Amino acid sequence: MNNKRWTALAVVSALVFAVATTGAGSTSASAAGVGKDKAIDMKFKQGSAVAKVAADSKGKEKVLWNDKKGVPNFVSGKVSAKKLNNASDASQIMEENKDLFDMSSVADELKLDVQSTDNLNTKMFKYQQVYKGIPVFGNQLILHADKNGDATTINGYYDPEVKVKGLNTKAKLSSTQALQAAKKDTGLTDVQHFDIEKADLNIYQAQDNSYHLVYLVELSTLENDSPAYWDVFVDAHDGSIVNKIDKVEFAAAVGSGKGVLGDTKSLNTESTGTTYNMRDITKPMYSTGGKIETYTAKNGTTLPGTLLTSNDNTWNDPAAVDAHYYAGVVYDYYYNKLGRNSFDNAGGTMKQTVHYSTKYNNAFWNGTQMVYGDGDGTTFIAFSGGLDVVGHEISHGVTERTANLTYSYQSGALNESWSDVMGNLIENKPDDLWLVGEDIYTPNTPGDALRSMSNPTAYGDPDNMANYVNTSSDNGGVHTNSGIPNKAFYNFVTTPGVTRDNAGKVWYRALTQYMTASSQFSDARQATIQAATDLFGANSTEVTAVTNAWNNVGVGAPVPPPNDPYEPNDTQATAYGPITSGTAYNGYISSSSDVDWFKFTTADSGTINASLTNLPKDYDLYLYDAAGTQLSKSINGGTTSESIAYSASAPGTYYVKVIGYSGANSTSAYSLTVNYPTVAPVGTWYYETKAFDTPHPYTNSYTGPVHSYTKTGATKVGLHFSRFETESGYDFVKIKDKAGTVKYSYSGTQAAFWVYVDGDTISSQLTSDASVTAWGYSIDQVAYFSATPLVTGTVSPVYPIQGL
């Protein structure tokens, strides 16, 4: 069937017309399948919501779409006339905009998780989608207000399909059983101590698009000699493992550290009177109990290990010196440059452990702290010797407490990239080549690195979406594909006029204010553009630079618009025409907001046939009268051609509109042809009172008699349906001409209307399927067109009127 699932039109100002009710005489241009009416209702309901934003925003709105779900993932403009000052206002504004997302009730489907006011005095309210009170994994919506309290954006991910799946939300497994299943699957059954061990119910959409009630099990431990930090999705009904994500986030950026490289640093320590602890209590977070603490695992795997101490405040442990000192540098950067108080923005203690395991070639964030190996001396030296490594690992903690980017595929690559970016910004080398790992990687090989942000391809990573690596390894290539957003940031930060500090502010604001767990590269693009707009203005150097930065790596790069000879024709007032009957017009829908209008004038009443063919994407076709009233539409799915056959009762000016469904657009042309009456015949319409009816109601599997009207000598004849009700999409009334050709096919409920055919004979016949009936139809008048009055016409058979 051709129903389009709960998707709004990706048209903005033109939607004011798209929501008009169907006028008299409209035709069912294509048979609707089960649920089509509801899908259409939702489409126009959603379209009306977008139109309201468009009207209130006075042309400055932006609507981007989640093509997989058919709902927006970014809406900016004036999303409400109400001021946004608190959580109560936020809930009311989200309720105002629920139709955008096919939401039944904000109170039932969203839960406010985070609200904040930043240093720009803008407010942010982050909602978690829930189904029957259970979180829907990865789906959040964020509402923003500007410094004036005006609601300006709603962005994120919401899944309208969840509520129609009928998922059983009663778990058969207990949380304890789910924990056991997760431990068994990850090989952690014998572990006695976990730093994180919890199981919470979630709704989860698997890779095959099936929905599951799951326990989201989080496990973090170091007891089995190697770090383990897992998200395991355990089906709450049968205990199967739906998916699992390895979240041990190993170092993806490295830098210089004087301790490991032989230089001495000044350290902030804690004096007890007799000894000194490697504990920094000088930072602002100390006012709420936060500290920077450095431990040693003594080449073991117990965390956090032993707090390092000294009798004389002289420290002879280079790895510890760097870990401790660099943690302070990272804290200072976030606090002084970005206004963030520790990784959790709540002054949380920053712990790090050095000398983890033996010759351990990595560093990682385990959900609670940073951990550094010593390296094997050949491939790596001590990982804490790189400032960007320390910045990278702590930044994983920042990401986890903000956007919480899911550590797989594109969202995981963004997770890695954002840590690369922040690590390099914190490192701040004066001659920075934007390398990753150059100071601690292969100490005997100068000039090499793990990765390059300026030239990712030098280390085998892609620098453009054209070379995106599709793989299931490394959680979907999170380290490899991070080269694409890394290159985008490099493009941005090296643009003349963009400072490192301002670039960091944009990336940080995008992460903390606009990105969600499911953010993809395109979402990161929009998030950074919006963040730059917030900070520096829509016409700023930064906005232009960040837009070009993403365009140049193939993320959201605009395709040069085709040479469309009919533009500008984006509104009814600027419609192209008049177009010639029978001529093909090859036009383009070149963007998600493009819409094409054409106009023509008929010389007589009669049939208007419009066809839209050669479709590169899912386009739809609409017919309007001069007053802007929608008369008919054709909204088939996919690239199926669209067609409209409308019986016009009088000559006049008409308009056809072509739109891309849910923002569909292409550089390939469509073909539009309209056939309409061009010559006014000589004669007059004459009307006669005639009556013929179906049974009221008609029966199942019904094939009615042919109701036929003939007026010998007439050039046109017509029937007037005073009442018309059939089962929509299943029971049809076919209108034929003298040759027996079906000219129109009607279904559903129609207002009173005329239908005309050329020639001297017209007939109607109802057929129904095997289930569900309706009232049927009643015809009370007939008409003919002739130069002179003719003798009484023939009507046969006249079916007895029933049920009146």
Automatic annotation (TrEMBL):
CDD domains documented for this protein: M4_TLP
Keyword hit for tRNA-binding: no
GO terms of biological process kind: proteolysis
Peptidase M4 C-terminal domain sequence ranges: 403-555
Domain Peptidase M4 as annotated: residue spans: 255-400
UniProt keyword annotation of Zinc present: yes
Active site: E393, H479
Domain PepSY: from-to ranges: 172-243
Pfam families: FTP, PepSY, Peptidase_M4, Peptidase_M4_C, PPC
Similarity remark: Belongs to the peptidase M4 family.
This protein's name: Peptidase M4
Species in which this protein is naturally found: Tumebacillus flagellatus
Organismal lineage: Bacteria, Bacillati, Bacillota, Bacilli, Bacillales
